[in-house]
Amino acid sequence: MTEKAKLFPIGTVVILKESTAALMISGYLAESEQRPNYIWDYSGFLYPIGLQDETEVYTFDHSQIEHILAFGYQDGETFAFMQKIQQIAANLYEAAKKESQRTNENQQGEGEKDV
User: Fold this and answer.
1) Cα end-to-end span (Å), the chain
2) 35 near 21, Cβ under 8 Å?
3) What is the pLDDT of residues 92-112, one digit of tens each?
4) Amino acid 115: pLDDT
5) Cis peptide bond prior to 48, omega within 30° of 0
6) Cβ of 80: how many Cβ atoms within 10 Å?
7) Are the beta carbons of 71 and 8 closer than 8 angstroms?
8) Local structure of 103: helix, strand or coil
């Protein structure tokens, strides 16, 4: 998850770094089996193909986006939702950061016991 990223609206079409395929953002704060216990900023589908089966859902972070081809539709409801999702993302990021620190401290503590 990217710290303090301003998330793009659903429907935004992007190209990721080191890629030529376009992806359309379809969701936020996604998890995937490829990286357990990690929350990605976005989920998306290949553009213009869309969802063909559930194995073709891509997860990626804001920091991986290199180009924006088109922004998704935005209205008052979108802006209100985006404010809420930004706050949820910030809270999740802080919780993950604290959990990571606790894990590191516990691992260091266990290492000291073995000496």
Assistant:
1) 35
2) no
3) 888 877 876 776 677 776 655
4) 44
5) yes
6) 10
7) yes
8) helix
Say if CB 26 and CB 45 are below 8 A apart: yes
Contacts of 62 (CB under 8 A, 6+ apart): 2, 5, 6, 7, 8, 41, 42
Q: Which spans in 22-75 are helix H?
A: none
Q: Which DSSP category does 72 fall into?
A: P
Omega prior to 36 cis, within 30 of 0? no
Domain boundaries, the chain: 13-114
Mean of all residue pLDDT scores within the chain = 86
Helix (H, G, I), strand (E, B) or coil at 58: strand
For the stretch 74-84, pLDDT in tens is 999 999 999 99
| Amino acid letter, 102 | R
Distance of CA 84 to the CA centre of its chain: 15
pLDDT in tens, 17-58: 999 999 999 999 998 888 888 889 999 999 999 998 878 899
| pTM exceeds cut of 0.90 | no
